[in-house]
Please model this.
Amino acid sequence: MNTDLNRVRDELLSTGKLRAAINYGNPVLAQRGPEGEPQGVSVALAKALASRLDVELEVVPFDAAGRVVDAAGQGVWDVGFLAIDPMRADQVSFTAPYVLIEGTYLLRDDSPHTKIEQLDAVGTRIAVGKGAAYDLFLSRSLQHAQIVRASTSAGAIDLFLEQALDAAAGVRQPLEAAARQHAGLRVLPGYFTAIRQAVATPAKNVAALPFLKAFIEEMKACGLVAQALQDSGQGDATVAPAEHL
Model:
């Protein structure tokens, strides 16, 4: 593919650095290390991209995906790592996914629910992180259950516990961690959606998108995505299949 790298650099590097929005609200993608340093698969991809462009990386931290999207038009980040969702398409453009993550429910052990579809019932209250991928998905798909929003994904678990809600919706891995930390909780098998995590850039960056799409396919093919997931303790997440460009 022929890409005008100068145009890509002009779009992505308006400050002379690559500013990467890193969402610590999704621990599958990003975590803080022992000294507070950013790590995880999204950080590894950001570092590889900055190296490819031969510029310094600047990490722009966020605690929720919705806040990353809200900041897309503010000129504070150049690339981000978000779940693909049509509700975000007017603000950001996406590559193909690099990781697939299951969205499921955290329940109490005494909950009568044993299947995902049983949660969509009148009177059922489900906690979610406002603006997260599963908030957007459930807002479209649930017909009867009530969504109760917390400001972040981690806050949704706290809200579920504090208000004795019926479930918390979110990414499987942090929900399973919460079930290990709190007696009497369990995570449902299966998933209501497979969240497709991709590289995003503000929608105005038209020239950069083909470059980013090719880059992410290369990072999947060379094993960087799989290795970064393994290195950050997230080896049970699934690397997305190759996308033909």
